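Chapter summary example.
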Amino acid sequence: MKKPIMKLQTKITIMITIVVIVSISIILPFITSSATRNVQETVEINIMNVAKIVSKTRTVREALIKGDPNKAIQPYVGSLLESSDHIEFIVVADMNGIRYSHPNPLRLGHRFVGGDQDKVIEEGETYISEAMGTLGKSIRAFTPIYDLDKGEQIGFVSVGTLIESIERAKKDALSNLILLVCIGMLVGIGGAFLLANNIKNTLMGLEPDEIIKLYNEKVGILDAIHEGIIAIDENIGITLINDSALNILQIKDKYKLKELMGRKITDIFQTSRLPHVLETGISEYDKEQRINDTIIVTNRVPIKNNGKIVGAIATFRDKTRITRLAEEVTGVKLIVDSLRANSHEFLNKLHVILGLLNIGEIKEARKYILNVTERQQQILSMVMKKVKDPTVAGLILGKFSRARELGIKIEVDEATWLDYSHKNIRSNALITLIGNIIENSFEAVSRNNKEEQFIRLRIEEMEDRIEIEIEDNGVGIKEKDIEKIFERGYTTKPESEGVGLDIVKKTIEMLRGNIYVSSKVGQGTVFKVVLPKED
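The structure predicted for these 535 residues follows.
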């Protein structure tokens, strides 16, 4: 699998960092504009408030009415100027613009400079303007001073701040803002890293493509296995269930998989012991349990995360199917089938004899018994003479009976010979090979609709090997399907597990042997097995 160019943690960190930077970049112009505007507005409000306070001060009014003979205005304004922030000058002047206060005492008695004082003198307005004064370019607030007794304007107050000071204040505000932005970006980047690391830990260090791969593998596994699987969380809610479980629990027609997710296990499977396993944390293995008319074999184990039980999972399978597979694997089924065929054939012959006796045909009955006995004795003598291994001989005799039921003729090659023991090759392995291949040939021959149906068998034991050759005139196998017949699950027989030839191939591989298949569609198939004998 191709490795991702960038890890999830790095990708999340970069993406969140970009979002933070872009967001700040979009908002920053508005914030800076607002900050500088606030500085300007704060200064204007401040100088206007000071101007109004001075214009309403009794000391200033009375001194201005009398022409300030005691020089009281300058000391008062000077003390006020020292206690005020961001104010460069406070000027009190009469209606002729003659100054009675100024930061520079040498300017006292001189006319007000700037040309923006006309509206306050002529119209008595209160306003803010920007002009060039003796101290430099400044923002100035004007407000009139009135003689309250006569109701006449007697002068005005101008309070101002130099533009240079305002710009300096704006720069300070921007510097603080930029500092805060940088801190915010660092916090955002740090938060992005912590979030990405937390997500990585939550996902157990897995990358998205690895999670997708695990999910696809999980789905594939659930679809492939025949065992039923049910998992629950700590609240006994179902978190996982597969089709096989629905089939075994016999609820496939009642529920769909998606409908079961999150439902309590006790609502679906009342006798489940998963809640008990969840509570005790004790695993249970190979336990038998009855579900309706089906006996299952089940394993139940708790699911743990960092030592804490967070759920439980059960796998189970129909015991009947397990038994059937075990019989096929061990060869017991083949022996049982052979014995069943012998028993069935024996009962058929007894029924014939009984019928002949009931109708009084004693002579015919005697003749039938002698013929059957002679034919059976010939087969028995031939097989026992050529096959000394009693287990394999019993299997072959059973296949003769089975073949007669199916109307198929079995021929044993003259070269056939099998001793009692075969070094490393055990009898049950030979039963598995011969029995499964012959059964496969029975099925192929039964479908060919030919007048003559036969199977030829050769089992030849030599000093260094055993050769088994089974030929039939069945329907044959397409060349493209020859390799598939050894795959587990591949079958042309209804109600078959498709494990017979898979077991054959695995048994041969275990014995370090080889199997060769030649076939023509419509003509038949030859299986040849070569097994080396080793000490």
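To summarize the output: The chain has a mean pLDDT of 80.
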